[in-house]
TrEMBL record:
This is Alanine--glyoxylate aminotransferase family protein. Its cofactor is pyridoxal 5'-phosphate. GO terms for molecular function: alanine-glyoxylate transaminase activity; L-serine-pyruvate transaminase activity. PANTHER family: ALANINE--GLYOXYLATE AMINOTRANSFERASE, AMINOTRANSFERASE CLASS V. Substrate binds at residue 362. Transmembrane segments: none annotated. The modification N6-(pyridoxal phosphate)lysine is found at residue 198. InterPro entries: Aminotrans_V_dom (IPR000192), Aminotrans_V_PyrdxlP_BS (IPR020578), PyrdxlP-dep_Trfase (IPR015424), PyrdxlP-dep_Trfase_major (IPR015421), PyrdxlP-dep_Trfase_small (IPR015422), SP_NH2Trfase/AEP_transaminase (IPR024169). Pfam families: Aminotran_5 (PF00266). GO terms for biological process: glycine biosynthetic process, by transamination of glyoxylate.
Length: 412
């Protein structure tokens, strides 16, 4: 008989911008027995999850459901289902995930225009609006919280401008949903993609999305073209532009999530349990209380880092609450610091991408990972690790500064 080692992942303190620690209630939910995907008990869990998603996205949209796959699958489902080849799409880019949106829009055959902001900053809404008036796109696609740079783009003015011009605004809120406010209806966002493994503290594997009737019409129009139902309405020479994905076709997925329950794929039963439990945790805590909690631990972390003499990266006026970027001091090997944090203290923080590689560390304070124990543990460990790497520090100041923030109460 062959033997393999027991699975025994080490307990970790995960302070990256995802995946983050999973709430034990979510892990327990995932261990329940499977239900068939058309079992009325299961379909009523699906309906409950849709309602919880509407509340989390702050929307009255009919459509709010998860796409099976990581967050990227939700982004791809929305873009491939709404954008037809040849559509004009504007992608304002201010970090790595903006480039991802550009790439996916390109693969949809769109005519894409981009505007770029220096990393560490976000757009003045007027800059985006001027680009809209210049390029006249059918869609604007952009990131709400850029985890690569730790910045948050204000969206309300852009949303209003898009609505006034009949442009659809598609937003990547993967890193922000459940951690900082995302006002789908209030900001006039037409389609929003969230993530599970960030502020919702659920393992990666589902992408919650929501979209409104205007977005739905785009997907359904292509469904009709595909089925040849457009008939006489089609112009001579019209190109048939069916949605170029089966798995990620929202017009089919929504039939599966509707009372029709038309079979599409096999639902990820255990992941749906996880999502429902994760959303239940969010709504029980309350969105507002949850945002206050994320701001509190951000403040404590930043106070600690600054007391330690660390410098933070990026424009502070648009800092993303749930990701704090720290400049690596000159002469310090950032990867060696990360290794020591993991090996000696069981803490994981993130490195960075592209132009920021080797220049900053990124610390996530998201969801279940966003708590006092983790922040204090990281600050103490970080200080000790930096001293071991030859950095001169005011010893003990970091934890004291964070404690002072905690003692001063829970106001943001
Ligand atoms: C993490 C992240 C993604 C990608 O999510 P996956 O689950 O890895 O597919 C997309 N956008 C942003 C802003 C992210 O932070």
């Amino acid at each position: 008989m062959r033997r393999f080692a027991d699975l025994s992942p080490s307990p970790r303190t995960i302070l990256t911008p995802g995946p983050v620690e999973v709430d034990p209630r979510v892990l327990r939910a995932m261990s329940h027995s499977i239900l068939g995907q058309f079992d009325p008990e299961f379909t009523s869990l699906m309906n409950e999850t849709m309602q919880m998603l509407r509340e989390t996205f702050v929307t009255a949209n009919v459509w709010a459901y998860p796409v099976d796959g990581t967050s990227r699958s939700g982004i791809e489902a929305v873009l491939v289902s709404l954008i037809s080849p040849g559509d004009r799409v504007l992608v304002p880019i201010y970090g790595r995930f903006g480039h991802l949106l550009h790439e996916i829009a390109d693969r949809c055959g769109a005519e894409v225009a981009t505007i770029e902001k220096e990393w560490g900053y976000v757009f003045d809404p007027e800059e985006v609006i001027a680009a809209i008036d210049d390029f006249r796109p059918a869609f604007v696609v952009m990131v709400h919280g850029e985890t690569s740079t730790g910045r948050a783009q204000p969206l309300a003015d852009i949303g209003r401008a898009c609505r006034e011009r009949g442009v659809l605004l598609i937003v990547d809120a993967v890193a922000t949903i459940g951690g900082v406010p995302v006002e789908t209806d209030g900001w006039m966002l037409d389609a929003v993609v969230g993530g599970t493994q960030k502020c919702l503290s659920i393992p990666a594997g589902m992408a919650p999305i929501t979209y409104n009737a205007a977005a739905e019409r785009k997907a359904l129009a292509r469904k009709r073209i595909e089925k040849g139902l457009l008939g006489a309405a089609a112009e001579p020479g019209d190109v048939l532009r069916p949605i170029r994905s089966n798995y990620l076709d929202l017009s089919q997925l929504q039939d599966y999530w509707s009372p029709l329950r038309l079979n599409h794929h096999t639902e990820m039963t255990s992941m749906l349990y996880a999502l429902r439990e994760g959303l239940r945790l969010v709504l029980e805590e309350g969105l507002e209380a949850r945002f206050v909690r994320h701001r509190l631990h951000e403040r404590a972390l930043m106070a600690g880092l600054e007391a330690m003499g660390m410098r933070l990266y990026g424009d502070p006026s648009c800092k993303l609450t749930v990701v704090t970027c720290v400049l690596i001091p000159d002469g310090v090997d950032g990867e060696s610091v990360r290794s020591m944090l993991l090996e000696a203290f069981g803490i994981e923080i993130a490195s960075s991408f592209g132009p920021l590689r080797g220049r900053i560390w990124r610390i996530g304070t998201m969801g279940y990972s966003c708590n006092r124990k983790n922040v204090l543990h990281l600050l103490g460990a970080f200080e000790a690790t930096l001293v071991r790497h030859g950095v001169t520090l005011p010893a003990g100041e970091a934890v004291q500064a964070a404690l002072t923030v905690y003692e001063s109460g829970e106001q943001p």
